């Protein structure tokens, strides 16, 4: 990391000569170019750090260096044409665009190990287009000779079109020429552009030169090309074939990242990092280089375990799934500081996938015992609803997008919805009838007052949400009403969100168009 920071400082300092020296003279315009270059780089670095902190909750020095370079790249096209205020906007927008491009790389799955296109390509394009917006004639005139029409800020909006055409021409030229050069190189024996997967894993120094630059140890040999080297299940030296449940010791998650036989270790270890005393250490898994190695390693291991065990078992749709721990308890079980809701759901989906295996392998059972609720936890019931000191029973109900909080108290049968009378709030009599159904089936119309707060959804969904809350509140007053309400379907939430399509017609309500032929 120290080398990255030092290199960024060298690049930053050299960029003053790159942008300021473009004026080929020592004047105010060259000084302005240096000022805006420094501002854009600073803002770009801070912006990148904040964007990474939003996702990873860590302030990254590497992120600042990447953001600074993206700011330098973005300001370069307009360094001699934009003001200091505009350079702040360019640094911010350039860092945002480059940060997004870096994240999209993993979704688009193209090979750009050093983020060259994401930072220099995207940053240059964004900076070129923003020059058409922020270029100003007074900045260019600081050298006493240059006269330009300016950009959008000076009312010359056509400059944006010129900048866009310039970017398109540059992209087209560089893509065509580079593609031709690489295509020819790839056809020349000995100049293959991509190394074999096994050589990438072993290291090109060892594969091409027969020696290593650094004393890395714990190398994993494999004779099959394309083996997932970071995740091996089975006995040591196996070929990656599907294992039986007896050939696997355990699924290791947390402090040791590998799936496979227990390895003797000497010295400290963290997720994805295996250490042996007296040697430099080598990460066993790519997850070590991520911001959340324990979580990422867990997801990879669960997915890999399912792929490995599936050939020796058969998935069963009727398999009983364990009740998994809640988000907070699972966070502790995994061994991380925090889990996002999306991360928790992904872990549960992977566990449910493993739960379909039948018969269930022993390592999977051990894993489930760690993440599933115990009988004691499942035996804990929710806090029962009670009638408060004012004689009110509170319950909630949901239907589609609507949610309602309902208070029920003994009275003369008044119904207030969001402060309005029920008949005034619901214009359709069907909605009001749906709301009062729990009182009707229990013959309690006119004996309870209902006060509800409801939001979201349409009138039908709101009426059914209030009806569900009303039924629950009635059971709080009189638990003996539960069988009657259950038989009438009043306490069963309707989980449907979209009305089902009817047979013989185009949609839920739309019919097929009749055409005379």
Features of the shown structure:
two-stranded antiparallel ribbon, ammonium channel activity, NH4_transpt_AmtB-like_dom, alpha+beta, 517 residues, Ribosomal_uS9_bac/plastid, Ribosomal Protein S5, domain 2, single chain, ribosomal protein, 19 helices, 9 strands, transport, Ammonium transporter fold, five-stranded mixed β-sheet
Model description:
The longest helix is centred in the middle third of the chain and has 30 residues, at about 160-185. The protein has helices at about 1-20, 30-55, 60-75, 85-110, 115-135, 135-140, 160-185, 195-200, 205-210, 295-310, 325-335, 340-355, 360-370, 375-380, 420-425, 430-435, 435-440, 460-475, 480-485, and strands spanning about 275, 280-285, 315, 355-360, 395-400, 400-410, 415, 420, 450-455. Among the domains are: about 1-185, Ammonium transporter AmtB like domains (Ammonium transporter fold); about 310-380, no CATH class; about 395-485, Ribosomal Protein S5, domain 2. The model is unreliable at about 215-250 and about 255-280 (pLDDT under 50). It is extended. The protein is α+β, with helices and mostly antiparallel strands and about 525 residues long. Strands 5-6-9-7-8 form a five-stranded mixed β-sheet. It is built from 19 helices and nine strands.
